[in-house]
Amino acid sequence: MAALDRSLISRLPLFQGLTPDEQSEILRDARSSRYAKETAIFAQEAEAHSFFVLIAGHIRVVRTTPDGQQVIARYISEGEIFGVAAALGRTTYPASAVAAVDCVVLAWPNALWPDLARRFPVFGAATYRTVGSRLQETQTRVVEMSTEQVEQRVAHALLRLANQTGRKTDSGIEIDFPISRQDIAEMTGTTLHTVSRLLSKWEEKGIIVSGRQKVTVKDAHRLVVLAENRDKG
Ligand SMILES: Nc1ncnc2c1ncn2[C@@H]1O[C@@H]2COP(=O)(O)O[C@H]2[C@H]1O
């Protein structure tokens, strides 16, 4: 692995509970790469050769439907392992991973996964925990998509992003990477027009502040009320 900040890597949740020597052994087989904003780390349907950990930046996981529509499956934050479903048995990537900002990524060949998980059970268990919590999040979103009105879905998406990547500022919780209204529409199965209408309405009510590719949640409590459809005004 190229010279990356080792102290930063050793603090990642994925490496907790491993000795410095064990961490070094796992990292020995990793390749570190930089990806400029909007470049792909892997492409949907490409042969799955590696699994990855995001060291710096944010990544969008995007699936393109046969008729060309794009859906944002989720965002990946610093420290997360990804592309791992492929290591666990798939032969192609189910979606594309695209750098939402400039990123630094570690990659391991998939062929090493069974051996790494066997030799370092703590690392294996941390990976399975991540996959498990993603499965839970996916199921939550399936229920949201099939039962909630669009206003609730957009409110839930903003709360999830604020929770996952939020940065506290004087004006509220700022989603810590560039996110457009189109991105929010692709996450919630609606149109740019509807997202723009909702964000403008919430901005007028003082619930959020939105700028170009930026959203800050000013009043998380009221957004929760909207997400749970308890708003009476
Ligand atoms: N059918 C699918 N449609 C959209 N995204 C998917 C699908 N299956 C898996 N993914 C996502 O694609 C991601 C690829 O990296 P991961 O394996 O970490 O996690 C995977 C899921 O988040």
UniProtKB/TrEMBL annotation:
InterPro entries: cNMP-bd_dom, cNMP-bd_dom_sf, Env_Response_Regulators, HTH_CRP, RmlC-like_jellyroll, WH-like_DNA-bd_sf, WH_DNA-bd_sf. One of its GO terms (molecular function) is DNA-binding transcription factor activity. Pfam families: cNMP_binding, HTH_Crp_2. It comes from the Bacteria. Residues 14-107 form the Cyclic nucleotide-binding domain. Keywords: DNA-binding, Nitrogen fixation, Transcription, Transcription regulation. The keyword DNA-binding applies. Residues 148-221 form the HTH crp-type domain. GO terms for cellular component: cytosol. Coiled coil: none annotated. The keyword DNA-binding applies. This is Crp/Fnr family transcriptional regulator. It comes from Rhizobium loti.
